[in-house]
Amino acid sequence: MGTFHVQGHSHDHDHDHENMAPTVPLMLSGGLVLITLLGVFWQQLVVNPAAVPPPMPAVVVERQLQFMDHPDGSVTVRALPGGEVLHTVAAGEGNFMRGTLRGLVRERRLNDASMVAGFTITQYADGSIVLGDLATGRRIDLRAFGAENAHEFTRFLPEAGTGDDATRVAQTEE
């Protein structure tokens, strides 16, 4: 027959009140976490409300370019505006330039951006050299890829202050 339970307690699910976690240390730990989070929020919202990025350094020299692929694998580099041909990169040359541009053009396609908009090469006073896509606004710091790779683009920059757009290209081709 079944067992009779006194005072409505069942002994089938024994539990020991001595094994329960102490509430005071748990509450103190939770309070410490809460104080830490409040301190972080205070720092971000009150002490340093919108960290303003440092101003861009001065532009030393900049040029807008257009790169045109041809069926033979060559790429014509033109100055914008005007379309003056600065250089033709033969098939198999300029691999870093080709790879970088391929990535930017892919991004243009994904964003349904203009395929005829130019690119900018900008050298700043702090030495940074940035390739900018006028269609998507994407910017790539070319120094991250080393001086030799950056040179594939910087050779198309005019000498600063000369007003002669073809000076640097002519010097690098010698």
The chain-level mean pLDDT equals 80
Largest sheet: 6 strands, antiparallel
Number of domains: 2
Distance between the termini: 107 Å
Contiguous uncertain segments of 5+ residues: 161-174
- Structural class, from secondary structure content? alpha+beta
- Helix % is 25-40%
Number of E-state strands: 6
Instruction: Give the overall shape.
Output: elongated
User: What share of residues are in beta strands?
Assistant: 15-25%
Helix tally equals: 4
The ordered string of helix (H) and strand (E) elements is HEEEHEEEHH
Strand order of the largest sheet: 3-2-1-4-5-6
Question: What Rg, in angstroms, do the CA atoms define?
Answer: 32 Å
Feature tags:
single chain; about 170 residues; alpha+beta; 2 domains; six-stranded antiparallel beta sheet; disordered C terminus
Can you give a write-up of this model?
The protein is an alpha+beta fold and 174 residues long. It has two domains: 7-47; 59-172, no CATH class. Helix content is 32%, strand content 21%. It is built from four helices and six strands, in the order αβββαβββαα. The protein has helices at 23-47, 95-110, 147-154, 167-172, and strands at 59-69, 75-80, 85-89, 119-124, 129-133, 139-141. It has a six-stranded antiparallel sheet with strand order 3-2-1-4-5-6, with helices on one face. The longest helix has 25 residues, at 23-47. The radius of gyration is 32 Å and the shape is elongated. The model is unreliable at 161-174 (pLDDT under 50).
